[in-house]
Amino acid sequence: MIKFAERLKELRIENGLTQTQLAKNTGVSQAGLAHWEACTRIPNAAVVIVLAKYFGVTTDFLLGLTD
Question: Tens digits of per-residue pLDDT, 3-58?
């Protein structure tokens, strides 16, 4: 899940978003985003799909399974 945390943070920063802005745009909690980026919690599949769709990437990319 380390790759997920890295990619989530990279995508958020590349898009000029704060955790709060991303949370509002996607309907996930800011606290959840903080935990996922810190790799202290694992998101469920539904959240991974929402984030992948938001950033226009595949879930495999977001999870670090592809480049």
Answer: 999 999 999 999 999 999 999 999 999 999 999 999 999 999 999 999 999 999 99
Q: How far apart are CA 39 and CA 5, in angstroms?
A: 6
d(CA 30, CA 58): 22
CB neighbourhood size of 25 (10 A):
12
For residue 42, the 8-state DSSP code is: -
Residue 18's closest CA among 33, 38, 2, 3? 33
Counting Cα atoms < 13 Å in the Cβ hemisphere of 36 gives: 26
pTM tops 0.70: yes
Amino acid at 48: V
